[in-house]
Give the backbone structure.
Amino acid sequence: MIPHNAIIAAHDYLLPSLRQAECVVDATAGNGHDTLFLCRNTPPECRIWAFDIQAEALRSAKERVCQHGFTDRVQWIQADHAQLGDHVDIPVDAAVFNLGFLPGHDHVLTTKPDSLGQALNSLLKLLKPQGRISIVAYPGHGPGQEEVVFIENFLADCAQRIYVATRLEFINQRNYPAILYTIGNTGRNLHEDTSPDYSQRTR
């Protein structure tokens, strides 16, 4: 199936890292849709961490997850994902971010670039070889536009020999569709030169 929005594309991207995962993170639990996706697609023994700064969001997410029979699968953390590194201290197979504000709630309470940067820096230190991170960003509002600028600058600075960073945009959709950003740990050593040698190419 061809993904028709950024969230579906994010889930498709993460799946290969989930099948044998030991630790995964939902850095923005929100209403629990991504958390439930992680529960459904990871082994029963996988540790799942879900973060949100809003107690109301965590209640909604926990209720959704429990309704589907995953009552004891998730460690719920009411905290800014900037504090992710204070809670997760084991290697991470995959992480998901769904930025912006909680749908149906106060739009003033939204994710912020500074917190996102701290969370990403913590995750990159923990991310396993072949591990994956997805980030869905929303450029249709002011804070979302600021996050898009931040993400693109952040990803551009990721070491090419270790990480593959991508952007997926749905350019024929209206009303500022969400953008998917991904980070994958290639498993290569920092000092391993994998750049193509164009001097040896011939037409």
The helical segments are 6-18, 33-41, 55-67, 84-87, 113-126, 142-156. The chain has one domain: 6-189.
